[in-house]
Amino acid sequence: MFRFLVRQSTTLAFIEALALLFGISWLDLATGHQVSLVLFYTAPIVFAVWLCDNKSVFVIAGLAGVLWSWADLVLGHSYSNATVQAWEIAIRFAFFFLIALAGIAMRERHHASQARITLLEHTQRLEKQIIEVSEYEQQRIGRDIHDGLCQFLAAIGCAVSALKIDLKERKSDELAAKASEIEKLLGESVNQARDLSHGLVPVQLDEAGLPAALHELANSTSRLLPVQCTFESVGQTAAANNGKATHLYRIAQEAIHNATKHGKAHKIDIRLSANASATSLSISDDGIGFARNGNNTDGVGISIMRYRANLMEGEFAIESGTGGGTVVSCTVPDGDAR
What we know:
Layout: H1 2-7, H2 10-31, H3 42-51, H4 54-74, H5 82-169, H6 173-200, H7 204-207, H8 210-224, E1 228-234, H9 243-261, E2 267-274, E3 278-285, H10 300-311, E4 315-320, E5 326-333
Parallel strand pairs: 1-2
Antiparallel strand pairs: 2-3, 3-5, 4-5
Helix pairs in contact: 2-3, 2-4, 3-4, 3-5, 4-5, 5-6, 8-9, 9-10
C-alpha cells in the first residue's frame, strides 16, 4: 500500500489530501464541539508532506485553517470578543503552517540522509569493484610472467647451456666460462620472475590453502630481501579456499612491504591462528615503527588493508610492538567471504 502511494503522481496525492481534509471537516461539523478535531486536521498536512511538493503542502495547511475556522463559525462557537476570536484563528493557522514547515524540514532531512546512504553504498560498491579489478589484473600479470617470461628465460637458459657445452668441446674455456656466468644469471632471473609471478598469483591458495601460500611468501621474502621472515600456523584455518584467503594473503604482502620499505625491519614474523569461530593473522617486525618512520596509519596501503578487512567483516589493527617495531593484525569470523 505504501509503495503504491509513493509511486502515484503528486496531483493524485494532492486530491487525496484534499479529500481527507474535507472528510475531517465534515466529521468536525458532525461531532460539533463535543469532540475536538484540531489535531486531526494535521493528518492531511502530513500526508501532503510526504507525497506532494512544498506548494501543495502550504495549500493544504492554509485550507485546514480555513475549514477549521468555517466549521467553528457554522457551529456557533462563542468568543468573549472579536479580538479573542481573531487570536484563536491566528493561532490555529500558525499551528497548521508550523506543522507544514516542520514536516518539510523532516522530509528534506530524510531525503538528504537517504542520498548520503545511497552515495555511501555506491562508493562501497565502486571500492569493491576496484579491489576486484586490481586482483584480476595482478593475477593476469602474474600468469603472463609465469607462462610467458619465465618460459622464455628458461628457453634462453637451455640455449646458453647448449652453447656452453659446445664451447667446452671446442676448448674455448674462456668463452665457456662467460656462457656459464650467463647461464647462472638467467637461472637467477627465472627464479626471481617465478617468485614475482607466485606473489601476484598465489597458486597455493587453491592447491594447499592459505598456510602454504603464507609459508611460500615467507620463504620468498627471505630469499629476495635482506630480512629473516618466518611463518607459524596454529589450528586449521577455515579461510583456505575462499575469497577471505586472498584478502588475508594480500594483507600479509602489504604488511611485509611496509615493514621492509618504511620500517627498515630485519626480522618479520607471520603468524596464522584459527579456532572454531575466527581466523587471525598477525605480522610483526623489529623495525623502527610507524610513528618514527613518518608512515602514518592513513596511507593508501594501510587503507586498502583496512578495507579488505571490512569486506570480510573482520577487525583490523596496526600498533606498536611491545619490544619496538610494528604489529599488523586482522581477525575475521568464519563464514562466506563477500
